[in-house]
Amino acid sequence: MNSLSVRFEIEELCKNNQIPRDKFFEVRKDQWKSILTNIEDRFITKTHYSQGLHWGWNRLKEPSYAVRLVDPPYKHFDYFIEDDHIWFIVEDIYDKMWIYEGESRLIFDQVIPELYQLKEYYLVSKKYKWIICEDHHGITHFSGKEIIGRIKTFEQENNEEIIQ
């Protein structure tokens, strides 16, 4: 496996830090396609049948919202995300998407901050209520009324955390 692969990096991270598989794991091969299809159908506007989640933040369905945070976004995700378990989707080399499921806090605290190869990723409600993406420009994109309400409240209460 390619050492530049974020999937490889995640496997090594889990092994080296003894992250239990019941708390964070790659979605099974017989499940990922339907999950990805549901996410794309719910959150992404497709102008061509081959468009998927790659650069999907450019085509988020309304309502959507975007901000650039002063700190890395994962430091604030506990403010926006109330779900205990979420999907974590990473874009790997050759635009391949890998879907993981895990405990929110573990993803924010132990996975995202440790990944050097992570360029773009999505966090998704397992009930398909919202999606968050941090793109390769460092901009955080939100879709879903619930999550947009939280980011707007955060923005009002913590204006110093937002780059204008």
N→C terminal distance: 41 Å
Task: Outline the biggest β-sheet.
Answer: 7 strands, antiparallel
* Number of separate domains: 1
Major β-sheet strand ordering: 1-4-3-5-6-7-2
Number of E strands: 7
Give Rg in angstroms.
15 Å
Quote the average pLDDT: 92
* Structural class determined from secondary elements: alpha+beta
Any descriptors?
5 helices; 164 residues; alpha+beta; globular
Please give a quick description of this structure.
By secondary structure, the protein is α+β, with helices and mostly antiparallel strands.
Commentary on this structure:
The chain has helices at residues 6-16, 32-43, 77-80, 104-111, 145-157, and strands at 24-26, 64-67, 85-91, 97-103, 121-125, 131-134, 140-143. With 164 residues, the chain is α+β, with helices and mostly antiparallel strands. It has one domain (6-45, 61-161). Strands 1-4-3-5-6-7-2 form a seven-stranded antiparallel sheet, with helices on both faces. The longest helix is centred in the last third of the chain and has 13 residues, at 145-157.
Note the topology.
Elements (H helix, E strand, L loop, with lengths): L5 H11 L7 E3 L5 H12 L20 E4 L9 H4 L4 E7 L5 E7 H8 L9 E5 L5 E4 L5 E4 L1 H13 L7
Antiparallel strand pairs: 1-4, 2-7, 3-4, 3-5, 5-6, 6-7
